[in-house]
Amino acid sequence: MDIKLMDFWPRILDATLQTLQMVGFSLAFSLILGLPLGIILVITRPGNLYGNKPFFNVLNGIINFLRSIPFIILLVAIIPFTRLLIGTTIGTAAAIVPLVVFAAPYIARLVESSLLEVSPGMIEAAEAMGAKPWQIIFRVMVPEAFSSLILNITIATIGIVGASAMAGFVGGGGLGDLAIAYGYQRFETDIMIVTVLLLVLIVQLIQSLGNTLSKTSRRR
């Protein structure tokens, strides 16, 4: 093994931890925003529990607008907002803000997709039995879509991993920052290879965990 690479392992470990931190916090905040938004998209859709076409169209348009912006552009566009919240635009904490703005609408759309897979017949049966709207949402729709939700959240998490690597272009930290600063700008090919392999490993672990959890929930 290259001595330079051996000496570099502590920095690679720090960058890996930064990536996991970015992904973990971004996913948590994105779920807090995206899950309710996805549910609202479904229940306010015309013909559904709280059908409201004007409200649905506005919310749908906002989510489509945010999702249409490439992450690298969004990263730069909301720099003033990031600085307002965090006080800086550089580092792991600063990278979490654009990651959440990027991922929350994406998760909302994935949640909407999962909930729309629930059979209308089950919802009609719950309504016939006198279930209240909130009971239909949390006791019928969400449990029935749970396996699909897990898979879709897994997809979103992998998307956040990829976006966190792009955050390295503006000094966001993590493996992406390391790959750009050393693997690309300084032509350290061995460091680039290691960072890519680590990102691949993280993605594989996330996908395997998501598949396992989805299968487990489906058996129940």
From TrEMBL:
| Residue ranges constituting the ABC transmembrane type-1 domain according to the UniProt record | 16-210
Lyase keyword on record: no
Lineage: superkingdom: Bacteria
Concerning SUPFAM superfamilies, the annotation shows: MetI-like (SSF161098)
**From which source organism is this entry?**
Gracilibacillus salinarum
Where is it chiefly localized?
A: membrane
Concerning Pfam families, the annotation shows: BPD_transp_1
Membrane-spanning ranges: 20-43, 55-79, 85-108, 149-171, 191-210
Q: Where in the cell is it found?
A: Cell membrane
User: Which InterPro entries does this entry report, sorted A to Z?
Assistant: AA_ABC_Transporter_Permease (IPR051322), MetI-like (IPR000515), MetI-like_sf (IPR035906)
In the bilayer, the protein is annotated as: Multi-pass membrane protein
Q: Which UniProt keywords apply?
A: Cell membrane, Membrane, Transmembrane, Transmembrane helix, Transport
Protein name as annotated:
ABC transporter permease
Q: Which family does it belong to?
A: Belongs to the binding-protein-dependent transport system permease family.
Q: Which NCBIfam families match?
A: PRK10782.1 (NF008049)
